[in-house]
Amino acid sequence: MAEKEVKSIGSVKDVRKEMNRGAWTAEEDRKLAEVIEVHGAKRWKMIATTAGLNRCGKSCRLRWMNYLRPNIKRGNISDQEEDLILRLHKLLGNRWSLIAGRLPGRTDNEIKNYWNSHLSKKIKQEKQSGGSTRGCSKLQRTRVVEEVNVVEVKREDTSNGGDQCSKMSFNVDEFFDFSEEGPLNLEWVSQFLELDEGLCHPS
DNA sequence: AACGACTACAACCGCTCTGCC
DNA sequence: GGGCAGAGCGGTTGTAGTCGT
């Protein structure tokens, strides 16, 4: 995609007055990266002004988060990653940032795009051919999502010292804590799959 | 070669959430 | 508690590239 990006540089830009819009140029990327290096990735309005980019803070944030940030993986979503996305989407719905949080180096925007252009069609096709990937009923899937909502509520509650998590069979904070993981540490996947299987095929 | 349809993805928009005063 | 600004999220749009005719 980098090739495509280079080609498109400047093609949309300067069409509208006031703020720059459209594709980012290499020069803009460089300026933005420089300012973020100095000030950190916070206060995007200030960053936009300081960099002299004539872009809104939101636009700068998006560019940084999705393309300029270190350790970003681009393209080539592996089968393993695809499978994870499918499973997580089944569990979480369109909560792309949460899904992206479980895929090191991937961004919510990339996953969202990948879903819309690849996986949603794939699922449609599978449904049309009568095949359910996991054999989960709609009701069971609803249960899974509700369960996750409970997880989030309980997670807030635990900060108040309450021990109300008896419903959950795994440690919620560990489940959502990505801070100490190496790239594509899949231990949590096993935990998740156990939960998934348990809900879809209760014994 | 030319053209239109389709695809993929970068970027924008509007809304919500969060923190500060 | 209310208002405001900044940050973050998900949905949608715009456009370049690709494919089929």
Amino- and carboxy-terminal Cα gap: 47 Å
Radius of gyration from the alpha-carbon trace, in angstroms: 21 Å
Number of helices: 10
CATH class of the largest domain reads Mainly Alpha
Helix/strand class: mainly alpha
Instruction: Tell me, briefly, the overall form.
Output: elongated
The count of domains is: 2
Helices and strands, in order, run as HHHHHHHHHH
Secondary-structure arrangement, i.e. CATH architecture of the largest domain? Orthogonal Bundle
Overall average residue pLDDT: 65
Number of strands: 0
Strand fraction band?
Answer: under 5%
According to CATH, the fold-level topology of the largest domain is Arc Repressor Mutant, subunit A
Low-confidence stretches: 1-17, 131-174, 176-184
What features would you describe in this structure?
Helix content is 60%, strand content 0%. It has two domains: 2-68, Arc Repressor Mutant, subunit A; 79-200, Arc Repressor Mutant, subunit A. α2 crosses α3 (44-51) and α3 (44-51) crosses α4 (57-68). By secondary structure, the chain is an all-alpha fold. The chain binds a DNA duplex (21 and 21 nucleotides) through residues 1, 4-5, 7-8, 11-12, 21-24, 42-45, 56-59, 61-63, 65-67, 94-97, 108-110, 112-114, 116-118. Its main location: nucleus. Residues 16-72, 73-123 form the HTH myb-type domain. Pfam families: Myb_DNA-binding (PF00249).
